[in-house]
Write a structure and sequence with these properties.
This is RNase H type-1 domain-containing protein. With 776 residues, the chain is an alpha+beta fold. It has 30 helices and 19 strands. The protein has three domains: 388 residues, Cytochrome P450 (Cytochrome p450), CATH 1.10.630; 90 residues, no CATH class; 154 residues, Ribonuclease H-like superfamily/Ribonuclease H (Nucleotidyltransferase, domain 5). The protein has a six-stranded mixed β-sheet with strand order 18-17-14-15-16-19. Strands 1-2-7-4 form a four-stranded mixed β-sheet, sandwiched between helices. A three-stranded antiparallel β-sheet has the order 3-13-10. A hairpin with a 2-residue loop joins strand 8 and strand 9. Helix 5 packs antiparallel against helix 9 and helix 11 packs across helix 13. The longest helix has 31 residues. 38% of the residues are buried.
Length: 776
């Protein structure tokens, strides 16, 4: 109790001195300008305290009262300042008179503990140096390709598996948290070539989780310094190391240690040889470790918080606008059909650029909920704004992007609506003035990563929207926002992801049944209408699938090809339901014709092997070992096959690189299929197929139809097995299959297909010798 009394006395004593000082030393009367009510001594402090929890909406309401959308304020200890939502004033600050409006000492000082002197917390020559260095990296084509590759792998190997798992268990996810972790991993890979594995199906690593919490606390507490009613209190708390300043210090320590570890790990790897952002800054030997740390933290802030904030608000807005979601789905369908793609196939850079409506929808979300809702500059010299407002030397000038989005004078009477169509002109997303829409800044400080941000956001949005329906718990009422350095949702964005059911998985426009899935789906029209012997208009009149079959077989309309196409489509639809890659529509008929020809060649029992170097003796036995390997970080897989005679000598070996299939077992299946294909090519007849996948070997041995999504591959392998005079299956442990596994791993650095006759790659000789000694 005694300690409380001393602290209370100290607080009011300091407060009295502060008010007395302002009252007695301020001989000039406050300048009377339009704005909130300014009280004697305390200025707008009472109004500020009353509305601090709703700062953005409160300041917008004030701005909207005035014709110029600009107000002047005065706060004790801070002095005068203005807030504006006028595009002409924004252009004046960010472009016309740019040199007169730097970040300013107060802004830099308040964030210096956290951001140091990184690009987002610096002025003058230091800012120009960082801007110039970063611009080299952001303007390279290699960065664009790296962004595309990295985002694709992250989506397919981390984001989608998490959402699918949650959908299957009806788990409620904090989608804001998921997006923040995705963005954190992504920016670390792009900027520093480090993967912290913050987003993972198996859970976040301890160090990454600790960093995430500390980073969130540091951003919140640092931005809280701007909202102190009495600014000197933060300095007192920092000096005494108490309260929020103590928590801020602890959080910053964790953040700094994490950044330092990134720098140390890259230094140990000879950092200068890489081409990422950190490497470019490290080439200047005058840059201290502290400066490099500031760079790391600044770009994590830019890459993690902005895109995740934008997408969180985008998905929340989308949840209450089903018509917008349907328009996006229609656009995605058109792009897939035009490029002969199915759901699950990666969109290219050009295809993402063609998503004009999705681009407009994301831009509209950015307009209503800008990731950085307000931005403040300092005035170096007296100035007059284009709207006539006087700005004194040393005043703070804030432009209010959140308020600008809600001004009828800028966006019309429907400015509060989520309306992507306002961005569409002649079917294309139009460019808006950066001074009406300064979400990515404007002028010399315009965001370098704007294009990269749109690539990421459109890739994520397209992948999620076409696979899932999203149930948002806070649908309707806008979530309460947290005013930190970026605009985040208080309590996150709780959602339940549901894999789309009931409607067609491909067109997402009609109820799905067997007839629709295999024949009536609009996406299949190029197949059926391209064949004169399948009259689409006649078949469309059939009321059941049985009627279609009767019409096809009775009219002798290529029933074998029709059946083959249906079988391939059926397997493809199963793959799509599971989010697996499938044949594009343009490949279906050709693939079906190939299977028919293959079946015809099997039915006459004739096979003509290609010329080969190995003179295989029919009476000898040969063993074919196969294995697969996954390189998730690259989105690739590898196949390895080795053929040996009964003395263990090499007859042939193979390695092949291919895009990452949907599961480990699929890689094993493809490896077995490749082993048998090579066997037939080389003319061997008495063979044993050996692998370390017990599931696959048992599946091949049992016979019957496989209900797995890779069942069509199992059927193909069994068909190949039937061509041999003598055929055996064998399961071994991994340590007895090392050579095939080494060949599969080698595919990581060997593009496409490589075959060695009567030898193996020289770099694997030591594996072969060890394996041979084990055999003997």
């Amino acid at each position: 109790m005694e300690l409380f009394s001393v602290e209370t006395f100290l607080f009011f004593f300091l407060l009295s001195l502060y008010l007395y000082y302002n009252f007695n030393t301020s001989k000039k009367k406050p300048i009377k300008k339009q704005g909130p009510k300014i009280y004697p001594i305390v200025g707008v402090l009472p109004e500020f305290l009353k509305n601090r929890h709703r700062f953005l909406d409160w300041t917008f309401e004030i701005l909207s009262y005035f014709r110029t959308n600009t107000v002047v304020y005065w706060i004790p200890g801070k002095g005068h300042g203005i807030i504006t939502a006028n595009p002409s004033n924004v252009e004046h600050m960010l472009k016309t008179n740019f040199e007169n409006y730097p970040k300013g000492n107060r802004f830099i000082t308040l964030l210096e503990d956290f951001l140091g002197h990184g690009i987002f917390n610096s002025d003058g020559e230091l800012w120009k140096l960082q801007r110039k260095t970063a611009s080299y990296e952001f303007n390279t084509k290699s960065l664009r390709n790296f962004v595309m590759e990295n985002v694709t792998v992250e989506i397919n190997t981390r984001l989608l598996p998490i959402l699918i798992k949650a959908s299957e268990t009806q788990q409620v996810l904090d989608f804001q948290d998921i997006l923040e972790r995705f963005a954190f991993d992504n920016i670390c890979k792009l900027a520093f070539n480090v993967d912290p594995t913050c987003l993972s199906v198996d859970g976040t690593t301890t160090s990454a989780a600790e960093f995430m919490r500390a980073f969130e606390d540091a951003t919140m507490l640092s931005s809280g310094r701007f909202l102190y009613a009495f600014p000197f209190l933060s300095k007192v708390k920092k000096f005494l190391n108490i309260g929020s300043e103590r928590r801020l210090k602890e959080s910053i320590k964790i953040v700094h240690e994490f950044a330092d570890n990134i720098i140390r790990s890259r230094t140990d790897q000879n950092i200068g040889k890489e081409e990422d952002l950190l490497s470019r800054f490290s080439l200047n030997k005058e840059n201290s470790p502290e400066f490099l740390r500031d760079i790391v933290i600044s770009f994590i802030l830019a890459g993690r918080d902005t895109t995740s904030s934008a997408l969180s608000w985008f998905f929340w807005l989308l949840s209450s606008k089903p018509n917008v979601e349907q328009n996006i789905l229609k656009e995605l369908e058109k792009i897939r059909v035009r490029n002969s793609k199915n759901i699950g196939e990666t969109y290219s850079y050009d295809e993402l650029r063609d998503m004009h409506y999705l681009h407009a929808a994301i831009s509209e979300a950015l307009r209503l909920y800008p990731p950085v809702p307000v931005d403040t500059k300092a005035c170096l010299n007296n100035d007059i704004m284009p709207d006539g407002t006087f700005v004194g030397k040393g005043w703070e000038v804030t432009y209010h992007m959140y308020g600008m989005a809600r001004m009828e004078s800028i966006w019309g009477k429907n400015c509060f609506e989520f309306l992507p169509e306002r961005w569409i002109e002649n079917g294309v997303c139009k460019q808006e003035s950066p001074f009406r829409f300064p979400v990515f800044q404007a002028g010399p400080r315009i965001c370098l990563g704007k294009d990269m941000a749109y690539i990421q956001m459109k890739s994520i949005a397209a992948s999620v929207i076409e696979r899932f329906e999203m149930e948002v718990k806070s649908k309707g009422k806008a979530p309460e926002h947290l005013l930190a350095l970026t605009l985040r949702m208080k309590g996150g964005l709780p959602v339940r992801k549901v894999i789309t059911e009931g409607c067609c998985d491909v067109c997402k426009l009609h109820q799905e049944d067997v007839v629709h899935a295999l024949f009536l789906c609009p996406t299949l029209q190029p197949i059926w209408r391209s064949r004169a012997h399948w009259n689409h208009s006649t078949l469309q009149a059939c009321s059941s699938f049985t009627d279609i079959f009767e019409l096809i077989f009775a009219g002798n309309r290529k029933p074998d090809l029709f059946a083959a196409v249906l079988w391939i489509l059926w397997n493809s639809r199963n793959n799509l339901c599971l989010g697996k890659p499938a044949l594009s529509l343009g490949q279906v008929v050709d693939f079906a014709q190939d299977r028919i020809l293959e079946r015809a060649s099997c039915s006459v029992g004739f096979y003509q092997p290609r010329p080969h170097q190995v003179a295989a003796l029919v009476r000898d036995a040969y063993k074919f070992n196969f294995d697969g390997a996954i390189f998730a970080e690259k989105g690739l897989a590898g196949l390895g096959v080795v053929i040996r005679n009964d003395h263990g000598l090499i007859m042939a070996s193979l390695t092949q690189q291919l895009p990452l299939p949907g599961s480990v077992i699929e890689v094993e299946v493809l490896a077995a299929w490749k082993a048998l294909e090579l066997t037939l090519e080389l003319g061997f007849d008495n063979i044993t197929l050996e692998g370390d996948s017990e599931v696959l070997i048992n599946s091949l041995a049992k016979g019957g139809n496989s209900l797995a999504h890779y069942g069509h591959l199992i059927a193909d392998i069994r068909m190949l097995m039937a061509r041999f005079s003598l055929f055996g299956l064998s399961h071994v442990r991994r340590n007895c299959n090392t050579l095939a596994h080494a060949l599969a791993r080698r595919a990581s650095s060997t593009p496409d297909l490589s075959i060695w006759m009567e030898e193996i790659p020289p770099d694997l000789n030591f594996v072969y010798m060890a394996d041979l000694s084990g055999l003997s």
